[in-house]
């Protein structure tokens, strides 16, 4: 087998390695030197552990890694390529470490008598486009030069490799610095290996999965040594089956308009309280009637035609009139565009030029602000609704309109905006699933806390209304000591709050609150301390592209460091962990990769296609009959996570992807087809 320079020119050697090719490669040397002089890159090269003490009295255990069926291929491969057996198995271990840590810099200790101190650390920077055959040869050539005494074992790595042929005297009980020891069996006999691990921190199931991943990687190396590092198969059949089972729990697609579903619930229980707000209360019957007359008025102002869908911006402080207005816009067959300011309206004009001249619904407090912006400014207040209801022109609720219910303007970077299209179907499915997950019923009282420009507010509002629960609306966002008193006074049972305000409720007497759902960026959610809450504390994750929340964890306040990082398991969507540089590759359970979300709650996409290809994709290579993935469209979150080894499909947040590492959906899913969303609103935008 001849190997030579790859696309980056990393190797200049053109002769087979078995024939004495030892030409130094400056690029590889630099990578070794870089790894040796910057050991901080390896501080987190620890294979993931459970993060908690498991109930066991045994100090360690082992699991065999079956390599017998690879022996014939292995012998042929080694002879042809001139690679030593230890090098092959060590490279497979480095690739495994990359999978589980999600980092290019990997490190492990090699134990052997060839060095006086008997303990060395192999450190290497893996490059996605590096050929496997080149990697094998580089490790074999430079292993001795790169292996230096590991003076900070615990901070660099927690795994080691030992050959029992030359180190039979080493006992695992003396290797207290490691969580896992890869034990290689004698050569040149058929290759075999075992994983020795601490039972106090690694479960038997996790150890077995790691062994299966190692075997899968080794087989992929032998099958196709000419492939790139990024193309190595890492997902074992065991993990593939488990991930498929976890993702069969997605909610079915429910085709119904939000306002129609609300009106049905209003008929079920017309006298039930729908809204209790600082500016007045509404029953379901009153809310349905008020929104219907306002919908007819909006239709008249918008001069809506059968083949055109209007987009109606609205800007409100938290109020009962905001809820009436949202329902009215939807009932008119239009699409809601929540705004927080005139400046945001002007930003929206760049993305949605057709909104110029459309009716804008505002509260009294925003009337002067928007007076010079729109020719059709509709101030929604009590006098207007009284007049409309007095005239009695309820009209016919529109059965013609867009499939989309909301458009959310969100930031996509410094000075950049994008418009996310959220369909009725996605929002109805998601809000219904959210209400079921939180066990809403007719006596639930849900605090409406989020701003209307925050996608969380849509879930707060409609998941409550779809279960005949009551929305509790207070002015502003109360993040002080009065929050607990307000919750008790209003008999709130469920509250969505930023994680940063959790301390306001710590050690407070909460007489009614059953569930506190913490919403903020995942990093902040990971910093929640244990104790002091007199209610159930949950962590939830979602974004405008998933329409509503998509994962939820009930382990929010655990002292366990790993489970504190949990963002929960999916309750409506499907969640997948893929290779950050190749989205066509699913990663093993416990490996760090990009979170990709699919299922019925995914938004229709962005209004402008030039943004859509970067985050929305369809039909990746793994969405096959074997995975049974029902993923017409997936959203790439740009967030690195891993599956927790707790059997529930729960995810742990690791970190945001580096901006340099965030590449387009087209490139990440190069074997899939990019999502080409249907034209927004029939092409009117």
UniProtKB/TrEMBL annotation:
- Keyword Phosphoprotein listed: yes
All copies of domain AMP-dependent synthetase/ligase, residue ranges: 263-606
What ranges does the record give for the region Disordered, renumbered to this chain?
1-29
* Record InterPro entries: AMP-dep_synth/lig_dom, ANL_N_sf
- Keyword Protein biosynthesis present in the record's keywords: the answer is no
One MF term in the entry's GO annotations = phosphopantetheine binding
Alphabetically list the UniProt keywords.
Phosphopantetheine, Phosphoprotein
Compositional bias segments (type: Low complexity): 1-18
Query: Could you tell me which PANTHER family the record lists for this protein?
Result: NONRIBOSOMAL PEPTIDE SYNTHETASE (PTHR45527), NONRIBOSOMAL PEPTIDE SYNTHETASE IVOA (PTHR45527:SF12)
Q: What is this protein called?
A: AMP-dependent synthetase/ligase domain-containing protein
Biological source species: Conoideocrella luteorostrata
